[in-house]
């Protein structure tokens, strides 16, 4: 009754003193506090429907609320995983009998209200798995707290070291938050009742304090994913109750203290990814309760304790990337329900362990990169549970028993780089889950088996064996196949035209066999094909003109007996080398621009052309029919390509922990990239930092080469990622930087590119080899200019719709080992609309000194803006100057500066970079200068197209017909001397 009278007053107060905070009035019932709590929460699943004003005004029937039977007061609120968001209201402080507040696994945001300290009876506070922020208020007044779990939130500020005062605690979880970096507080050791401690990923550095080992009740100790360093103290033997210890991903060093072997209750053990070394104490073999044992990525050496062979509960073990040696315990797996084992990349030797699958449950068997020798034991014939089998890079030999090949659940079989012999049994046809079959570099022989049933097969690597006979036409049934490597075998017969039905192929290598017949035209149907190597065979006939439709980035047809014309686009992609050793091949007059190739010039024979045309017509009809049939398939494949594929972490049994790292693999050369390879971007590997992100050099493990990884700045990252991904995913050209993969994971996005050993053009231009001697001579500069021009021309003219780069500059032109130019950084590039008018862009992209003048007054961007920027790059190449320098004058740039030096030849010669200009190339340089001046013409319509640019540049070639030394060839000088006309043109253009 009293309440009814009071209510109007409350409302009045609210009106007078907003915001309304009933708590301050101190007169509300618990029901009202709960309603206030509900008001601050968002409840999309309406689980709080029962939270409403009722006649009896009791909250005890509210869903998830528990009351004391006698006093009727609220003692518990438990709402686990109910999709609640919003914030926890300070009204919670009203509930002074509350013993349990458990709201785990929701989406609750905001701060933890300090009013919670008024709930002096609180025993359980579980808010794990929310999105709460800010500092955790000091809760040390809650002396009755037994369970405090605030892990997996976004709490920040200093680690709450006052938790050491909560001596009643038995469970403490603060891991997976965003605390400031700091040390583990000494006071933690007071928590002698603690059985469960989760401090993973809490930004701890320094050593583990001795006091931690005083928590003798501990059963679970998780300090993983910190930066803890130093040695592990032998005092750890005091934690006798420990059954789970997680110290992975720290910087811990030293040997494993022998005391650890006394912790016989241990079931789960993870010390992986630290810097531990030395021998594993052999007493570790007495930890008979072990279920999971992980030590991978450390520096352990010596023998692996034999006692592990007697274990009865071991399910998973992963010790890869250490230096263990000697025999592997003979009985390993004999008595345990082993499901996964990864002992890869150690130095184990002797016979291959035979009991790993003794109990029939082995799914992952990874033992690659050791020195195991002898045969694979027969016992594995019964091991049908295998999903992943990798014993590659050992010295295993002998035949593989026929039944072994049929593994119904296997997604990967990898026997590569051993000395196996014999045939692949036809029973492999039962391994229908197979995704990768890798047998390369062994002594396998016989015919290739029928693989038509393996409809999930994506990678087939059989190279470097002694396979003979024909490539079965059934290969066309492998609709998922993306990589086919059959090189270096003794295969005969023709390249089956059915190969063209493998519509997802990216990478085909059939080199160094004895294949005969024509190159099947059906290959042109494989729209995703990127790399084609048919070299060193006996192929005959013409190169199908239709191959140019593919967006190949590499082609090699050398060492065959092909004849006829080399399509000029293919010549651009592969260079002369790709066609060497085919006596009958010829090239068109106009494609003879790059080097003095040994190839013949084609003589046009009209008759022959007629025949060809007829054939083409016929083929077109067939192709059309095929296209109709496959259009659907292609569409599907294109879609999949765009979505990319998930690449799992090959080696790691821990894979589950990183499942969320999804990979989008651009359709380029099959480059195996582990998520792990690029997770760990270290500052010492930083090679550059630009407007869109930081770039790191990463050496892939196992000698898979080097890549560049760009980590996009947070914020705009996703947008730029999508832009770059969208564009680079679609285009391929030898002068465009290749994108291998990209990944968006949580807040950070990364792109994986081919690595460019020589950095960017700007750097190279301003680098000296010896003092005074420039890294790039004129011939190299010219070649780079032409390469870059080809790349940009491809964007403008061969991509439909055209792509405008919008940020062409010397720092965005990268150089590979051979100084081949690659246009990079598509972060701001745009797809031009089909309309010729150009398109409006709200944001101005580009870099000062390179931006076309019209962009100052119009937002219309078209290809000519790139042409302008490219002209500036040419000016840099010719003059060796930077686009903006102080001595050009206030607000002036290189274009202006050059324009003031075109009055006569003498003035022009003065601005040529004297580091590279000498008599022989002076005229060539002036020709390029002329192109540059045209490109930087003020009026966009007067600028040449990139196609014109290439033509003009080609005429200024200093490298052809010249043997690299600097002596002038009189004839050439005469040929290339610009006429007075040309010089006057220069003046006009400016
Ligand atoms: C939290 O919110 C996100 C979207 O904001 C949603 O995807 C997720 O499922 C939510 N989680 C829970 C536990 O409700
Ligand atoms: C907190 O709640 C989650 C979800 O129910 C549970 O898994 C976890 O064990 C709880 N924390 C503690 C310390 O009991």
UniProtKB/TrEMBL annotation:
Which positions fall inside the Protein kinase domain?
Answer: 681-960
Does this entry carry the keyword Transit peptide? Answer: no
GO MF entry, a single one: protein serine/threonine kinase activity
One of this protein's GO BP terms? plant organ formation
Q: Output the Gene3D superfamilies linked to this UniProt entry.
A: Phosphorylase Kinase, domain 1 (3.30.200.20), Ribonuclease Inhibitor (3.80.10.10), Transferase(Phosphotransferase) domain 1 (1.10.510.10)
| Domain of life the protein comes from | Eukaryota
By its UniProt entry, which InterPro entries does this protein fall under?
Kinase-like_dom_sf, Leu-rich_rpt, Leu-rich_rpt_typical-subtyp, LRR_dom_sf, LRR_N_plant-typ, Plant_RL_S/T_kinase, Prot_kinase_dom, Protein_kinase_ATP_BS
Membrane-spanning residues: 616-636
Keyword Signal present in the record's keywords: the answer is: yes
Keywords annotated in UniProt: ATP-binding, Cell membrane, Developmental protein, Glycoprotein, Kinase, Leucine-rich repeat, Membrane, Nucleotide-binding, Phosphoprotein, Receptor, Repeat, Serine/threonine-protein kinase, Signal, Transferase, Transmembrane, Transmembrane helix
Where is it chiefly localized? Answer: membrane
Q: Which Pfam families match?
A: LRR_1 (PF00560), LRR_8 (PF13855), LRRNT_2 (PF08263), Pkinase (PF00069)
Topology relative to the membrane: Single-pass membrane protein; Single-pass type I membrane protein
Q: Which residues bind ATP?
A: 710
**Where is it located?**
Cell membrane; Membrane
Q: Which family does it belong to?
A: Belongs to the protein kinase superfamily. Ser/Thr protein kinase family.
What is this protein called in UniProt? Protein kinase domain-containing protein
Q: What is the lineage of its organism?
A: Eukaryota, Viridiplantae, Streptophyta, Embryophyta, Tracheophyta
């Amino acid at each position: 009754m009293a309440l009814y009278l009071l209510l109007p007053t409350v409302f009045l107060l609210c009106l007078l003193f907003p915001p309304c905070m009933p708590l301050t009035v101190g007169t509300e019932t618990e029901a009202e506090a709960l309603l206030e709590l509900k008001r601050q929460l968002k409840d999309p699943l309406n689980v709080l429907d029962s939270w409403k004003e009722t006649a009896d005004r009791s909250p005890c029937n509210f869903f998830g609320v528990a009351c004391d039977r006698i006093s009727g007061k609220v003692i518990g609120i438990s709402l686990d995983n109910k999709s609640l968001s919003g914030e926890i209201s300070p009204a919670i402080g009203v509930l002074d009998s509350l013993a349990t507040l458990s709201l785990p696994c929701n989406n609750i945001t905001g701060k933890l209200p300090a009013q919670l300290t008024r709930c002096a009876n609180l025993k359980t506070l579980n808010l794990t798995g929310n999105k709460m922020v800010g500092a955790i208020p000091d809760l040390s007044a809650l002396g009755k707290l037994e369970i405090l779990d605030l892990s997996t939130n976004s709490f920040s500020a200093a680690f709450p070291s006052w938790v050491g005062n909560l001596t009643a605690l038995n469970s403490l979880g603060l891991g997976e938050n965003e605390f400031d970096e700091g040390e583990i507080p000494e006071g933690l050791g007071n928590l002698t009742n603690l059985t469960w401690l989760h401090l993973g990923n809490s930004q701890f550095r320094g050593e583990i304090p001795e006091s931690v080992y005083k928590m003798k009740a501990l059963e679970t100790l998780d300090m993983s994913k910190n930066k803890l360093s130093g040695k592990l103290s032998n005092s750890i033997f005091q934690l006798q109750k420990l059954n789970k210890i997680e110290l992975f991903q720290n910087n811990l060093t030293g040997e494993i203290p022998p005391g650890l072997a006394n912790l016989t209750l241990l079931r789960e053990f993870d010390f992986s990814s630290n810097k531990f070394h030395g021998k594993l104490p052999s007493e570790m073999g007495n930890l008979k309760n072990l279920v999971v044992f992980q030590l991978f990525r450390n520096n352990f050496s010596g023998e692996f304790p034999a006692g592990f062979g007697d274990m009865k509960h071991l399910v998973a073990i992963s010790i890869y990337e250490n230096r263990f040696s000697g025999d592997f315990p003979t009985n390993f797996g004999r008595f345990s329900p082993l499901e996964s084992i990864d002992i890869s990349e150690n130095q184990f030797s002797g016979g291959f362990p035979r009991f790993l699958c003794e109990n029939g449950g082995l799914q992952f068997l990874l033992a690659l990169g050791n020195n195991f020798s002898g045969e694979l034991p027969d016992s594995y014939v019964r091991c049908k549970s295998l999903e992943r089998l990798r014993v590659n890079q050992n010295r295993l030999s002998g035949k593989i028993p026929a039944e072994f090949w049929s593994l119904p659940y296997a997604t990967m079989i990898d026997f590569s780089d051993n000395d196996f012999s014999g045939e692949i049994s036809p029973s492999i046809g039962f391994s229908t889950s197979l995704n990768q079959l890798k047998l390369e570099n062994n002594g396998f022989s016989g015919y290739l088996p029928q693989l038509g049933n393996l409809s999930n097969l994506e990678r087939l690597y059989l190279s470097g064996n002694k396979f003979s006979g024909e490539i079965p036409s059934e290969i066309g049934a492998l609709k998922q196949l993306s990589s086919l490597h059959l090189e270096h075998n003794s295969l005969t017969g023709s390249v089956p035209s059915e190969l063209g039905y493998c519509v997802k192929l990216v990478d085909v290598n059939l080199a160094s066999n004895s294949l005969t017949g024509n190159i099947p035209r059906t290959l042109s149907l494989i729209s995703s094909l990127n790399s084609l190597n048919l070299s060193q065979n006996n192929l005959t006939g013409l190169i199908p003109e239709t191959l140019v439709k593919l967006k190949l980035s590499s082609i090699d047809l050398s060492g065959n007996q092909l004849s006829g014309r080399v399509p000029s686009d293919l010549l651009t992609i592969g260079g002369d080398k790709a066609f060497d050793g085919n006596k009958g091949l010829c090239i068109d007059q106009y494609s003879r621009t790059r080097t003095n190739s040994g190839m013949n010039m084609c003589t046009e024979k009209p008759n022959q052309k007629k025949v060809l045309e007829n054939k083409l017509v016929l083929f077109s009809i067939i192709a059309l029919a095929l296209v109709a049939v496959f259009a659907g398939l292609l569409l599907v494949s294109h879609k999949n390509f765009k979505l990319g594929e998930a690449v799992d972490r090959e080696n790691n049994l821990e894979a589950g922990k990183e499942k969320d790292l999804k990979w989008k693999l651009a359709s380029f050369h099959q480059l195996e990239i582990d998520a792990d390879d690029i997770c760990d971007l270290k500052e010492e590997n930083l090679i550059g930092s630009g407007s869109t992100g930081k770039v790191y050099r990463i050496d892939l493990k196992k000698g898979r080469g080097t890549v560049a990884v760009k980590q996009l700045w947070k914020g705009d990252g996703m947008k730029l990622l999508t832009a770059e991904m969208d564009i680079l995913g679609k285009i391929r050209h030898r002068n465009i930087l290749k994108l291998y993969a990209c990944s968006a994971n949580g807040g950070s996005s990364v792109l994986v590119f081919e690595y460019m050993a020589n950095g960017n053009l700007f750097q190279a231009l301003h680098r000296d080899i010896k003092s005074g001697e420039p890294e790039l001579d004129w011939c190299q500069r010219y070649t780079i200019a032409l390469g870059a021009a080809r790349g940009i021309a491809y964007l403008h003219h061969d991509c439909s719709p055209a792509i405008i780069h919008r940020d062409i500059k010397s720092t965005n032109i990268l150089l590979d080992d051979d100084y081949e130019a690659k246009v990079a950084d598509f972060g701001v590039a745009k797809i031009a609309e089909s309309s010729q008018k150009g398109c409006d862009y709200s944001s101005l992209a580009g870099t000062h000194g390179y931006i076309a003048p019209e962009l100052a007054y119009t937002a219309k961007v078209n290809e000519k803006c790139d042409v302008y920027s490219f002209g500036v790059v040419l000016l840099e190449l010719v003059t060796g100057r930077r686009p903006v320098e102080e001595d050009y004058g206030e607000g002036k740039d290189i274009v202006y500066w050059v324009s003031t030096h075109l009055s006569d030849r003498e003035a022009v010669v003065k601005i040529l970079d004297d580091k590279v200009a000498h008599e022989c190339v002076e005229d060539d340089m002036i020709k390029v200068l002329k192109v540059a001046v045209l490109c930087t013409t003020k009026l966009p319509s007067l600028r040449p197209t990139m196609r014109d640019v290439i033509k003009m540049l080609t005429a200024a070639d200093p490298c052809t017909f010249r043997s690299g030394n600097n002596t002038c060839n009189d004839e050439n000088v005469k040929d290339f001397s610009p006429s007075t006309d040309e010089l006057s043109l220069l003046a006009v253009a400016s």
